[in-house]
TrEMBL record, chain A:
The lineage of its organism: Bacteria, Bacillati, Bacillota, Bacilli, Bacillales. GO terms for molecular function: phosphatase activity. The keyword Hydrolase applies. Residues 119-334 form the PPM-type phosphatase domain. PANTHER family: PHOSPHOSERINE PHOSPHATASE RSBU, STAGE II SPORULATION PROTEIN E-RELATED. InterPro entries: Bact_Sigma-Reg, KaiA/RbsU_helical_domain_sf, PPM-type-like_dom_sf, PPM-type_phosphatase-like_dom, PSer_Pase_RsbU_N. SUPFAM superfamilies: KaiA/RbsU domain (SSF101215), PP2C-like (SSF81606). Keywords: Hydrolase. It comes from the Bacteria. It comes from Ornithinibacillus halotolerans. This is Phosphoserine phosphatase RsbU. The keyword Manganese does not apply.
Automatic annotation (TrEMBL), chain B:
It comes from the Bacteria. The lineage of its organism: Bacteria, Bacillati, Bacillota, Bacilli, Bacillales. This is Anti-sigma factor antagonist. InterPro entries: Anti-sigma_ant, STAS_dom, STAS_dom_sf. It comes from Ornithinibacillus halotolerans. One of its GO terms (molecular function) is anti-sigma factor antagonist activity.
């Protein structure tokens, strides 16, 4: 006897028991068997059919009354059966897509892997968390031959798969740059041309690009419409916006960028972020940039990695662990 | 939150009144309404953002798209009455330098 017949038998038994005794336990049995039906993908009209057979066994003399009414119900259930089959199909499709995105997310993670380089006298911390599976934020570190370090942080409009695809393009464009160091403004201008030629007219990327020279303590930087970072001056004991003007990447082919300079002294700190940080909300209201500074101040005695971790956890909690946008925060501190 | 779009057009001038939030969910609706207008040769499209309380980067993307199209078609695009938070987004991204952002609004009959 296959399990379907077994279920049919159980169903008939439960039904006759319930008609006779109205025993709650029979109802419980019905609940259990309905779950088993769903697991085995039994359609609603098949269940009605089971019911008809069972009733006919119990009341063979009422065949003429039972059959027409039940056949009517059977017909009425057919569309539900079709809808259920469609639902099953969609569920399978969805699982398929989900696993494909998982593979893509893993690939992206591998592609985007960037190691925090060891730079003497510089303490670097970074956290980047996607709102969904794929990350539209990007950051990377490159240590140049002359001992300086390049730091890029970028944000693609939107999120999810399209943003991640655009990010991969940026990554390859940057990898193809010559080994000799270019100025931050030249790098943004070149990237802008790549992006402008290769993206949808409504797509754009914001990027902040910086180079730090440990020997001189100088930080050169340019911005392509990126959310301004903060500079903490130990001497002044003050946080200052790192203001750098420049158009986002991908809008105008001939855009040029300016380059600015900051001199880092011991215990000065640079904070770079994406708008996933500034667009955090508390009770339906956006946080202010000052709120971010306040949180950083609270943890600034820790190492850079500890600071970014704590700040992230703070805002994650603030939003009930539901990120609306990809969140990236980079902090570096001059320690000697 | 939703986005209401009301368009008044006369000859080559279109005024688009927006009200609500422009985000990843409402941006497609704005795109559908706005982009065809920016293809009016020698036209002027004015977008009134007075009642737009929030816009994210997806919304900026729609306006960048509209700007590119309007340049292609010799059409003027002007954004008016931006709230501070929305204006800040245009300033940070450098778009205020290449877009016509004006604080006054004209009527269709002017």
């Amino acid at each position: 006897m296959d399990t379907k017949d077994l279920d049919a038998r159980t169903y008939a038994d439960l039904l006759s028991r319930y008609i006779e005794t109205q025993d709650e336990r029979a109802l419980y049995g019905a609940e259990k068997i309905s779950k088993s039906f769903i697991r085995k993908n039994i359609l609603p009209e098949e269940i009605v059919n089971l019911h008809i057979q069972a009733l006919l066994d119990i009341y063979p003399e009422s065949r003429d009354q039972i059959l027409p009414s039940m056949n009517f119900l059977l017909e009425a259930m057919i569309s539900y059966g079709l809808a259920h089959q469609e639902y099953q199909m969609l569920r399978e499709k969805q699982l398929e897509i989900k696993s494909e995105i998982q593979v893509a997310a893993r690939m992206q993670k591998m592609l985007m892997q960037t190691e925090i380089p060891e730079i003497k006298g510089l303490d670097i911390g970074v956290i980047s968390v996607p709102a969904n599976q794929m990350n539209g934020d990007y950051h990377h570190f490159v240590k140049d031959k002359d001992g300086s370090i390049s730091i890029a942080i970028a944000d693609v409009i939107g999120k999810g798969v399209p943003a991640a695809l655009a990010m991969s393009m940026i990554k390859y464009a940057m990898d193809s740059f010559p080994a000799s160091r270019m100025s931050t403004s030249t790098i943004l201008a070149s990237l802008n041309r790549v992006v402008e030629q290769n993206v949808d007219p409504g797509m754009f990327i914001t990027m902040f690009y910086a180079q730090y020279e440990p020997k001189t303590g100088k930080l050169h930087y340019s911005s392509a419409g990126h959310e301004p970072g903060f500079f903490f001056s130990k001497k002044k004991n003050r946080f200052i916006d790192i203001d750098a003007k420049g158009l986002v990447l991908g809008v105008n082919q001939n855009t040029t960028y300016s380059q600015s300079e900051l001199l880092l002294e011991k215990e000065d700190m640079v904070i770079l972020l994406t708008d996933g940080v500034t667009e955090c909300q508390k009770d339906g209201k956006f946080i202010e940039r000052e709120d971010i500074v306040e949180v950083i101040k609270k943890y600034m005695h820790l190492t850079s990695q500890e600071i970014v971790n704590r700040v992230y956890r703070h805002f994650e909690r603030l939003q009930n662990f539901d990120l609306r946008d990809d969140f990236t925060l980079v902090i570096f501190k001059k320690v000697v | 939150m939703n986005l209401q779009i009301q368009i008044d057009s006369k000859n080559n001038l279109s005024i688009v009144h927006l009200s609500g939030e422009i985000d990843v969910y409402t941006a497609p609706k704005l795109k559908e309404a706005l982009l065809p207008l920016t293809k009016t040769h020698n036209g002027l499209v004015e977008v009134d953002l007075e009642k737009v309380s929030y816009m994210d980067s997806t919304g900026l993307g729609v306006f960048i798209n509209a700007l590119k199209l309007s340049t292609e078609h010799d059409c003027k695009l002007r954004l008016v009455n931006l709230q501070d938070r929305v204006l800040r987004l245009f300033q940070i991204t450098g778009l205020h330098e290449i877009m016509d952002l004006n604080s006054t609004i004209r009527g269709v009959d002017e």
